[in-house]
Amino acid sequence: MLKNRFNTKSVGLRLVPILKMLEAGNYPAKIARMLGMSKPHVSYYIRKMRQAGLVRRRNVKWPAFYVVTEKGKKFLTTCNVLSPEYVFRLHRCGFKYPILRNSKVMLDWREVPKACGHWTSLIGDEGGVKVERTTRHVIVWCESISGRDPDELLLRAKGLADRVAASLCVKYGFRLGEGRLVPKKHIGVYDPVAELLSRRFEVSDDVGKIDRSEGLGEIDWFSAKAAKDYLLMPGRLENLEKRIEVLHGDVQELVSVLKQQLTQPASLPVDVLNRKNLSYVA
User: Fold this and answer.
1) What residues contact residue 83 under an 8 Å CB cut-off, 6+ apart?
2) In the chain, what percentage of residues exceed pLDDT 70?
């Protein structure tokens, strides 16, 4: 049992995501940016976790890094059944800025070959964000951020990328055009079934994928609409079940009426009954 008491809602909403990010080697200020929280708020939860024995500080210098204790790992294991309350996690999201004027300063970024093997790009780190320079573009790769609305997350990521691009223009003398979203950004949605499936194999198509590349059991959708539709699916199914139930009642009532009509003797019109045994002459 933990000595400190945690609110049930805050466990899934704040504590578990912070604890997982500490386990992944992130420091408090970065966690605050990724979760859209204030630094004091993150520090408050970390202090509570230290008092509960879930984490311990690894170093004395700044920035502070923490190690998840065995007690903390057991706590995470028991919380794996909890669905993270942030709902959506935007990652592998980048914005591509066309180069209108090249840098006047020599970049000290490292050269990395592209997947095709014929091209290379320069990779740098600006303000804690990965930046890639190709022959025609500068690509800003945003950090993973979480929230309740994927469209809002994209706006936050675009704002961050624009600030980094403006900083590059000032620092290196670039002149960049308007940034555009790189295709196939990942909008992760936690799913307990995906958590189990991803331990065995990977699934991927043009709409999304399931794997453990980020260490979480989630479904990564490539569009905000697909992610929203997925979460709205249970509600839509419930509404569909209600409509089917109403339709079933109407059909049952109709069948009952038809059965009554079929079991009753047919009533013929009077003029037809009066024409019995009549002979017709051509």
Assistant:
1) 12, 190, 192
2) 79
